[in-house]
Amino acid sequence: MEHPGKDLAAAASARRYMRYVAVLAALAGLMFGLDVGVISGAQQFIQRTFAIDDRMIEHIVSSMMVGAAVGAGLAAWLSGHFGRKRSLLWSASLFVAGSLASAAAGSPVALIGARLVLGVAIGIAAFTAPLYLAEIAPEDKRGAMISTYQLMITIGIFLAFVSDTVFSYSGRWRWMLGIIAVPGIAFLLGVLGLPESPRWLVLRGRHDDATGVLNRLRGDETTARAEVAEIEERLRTPQQGWQLLRENRNFRRSVGLGIALQVVQQLTGINIVMYYAPRIFADMGYATGTQMLFTAVVGLTNVLATFIAIGFVDRIGRKPILYAGFVVMAVGLAVVGTLMASGMATQGQRLLAVAMLLVFVIGFAFSAGPLVWTLCSEIQPLKGRDFGIGVSTVTNWLGTAAVGATFLTLLNHLGHAQTFWLYAAFNASFLLFTWAFVPETKGVSLEAIERRLMDGRALREIGE
Ligand code: BGC
Question: 91 C-alpha to center of ligand 1: Å?
Answer without folding.
Answer: 19
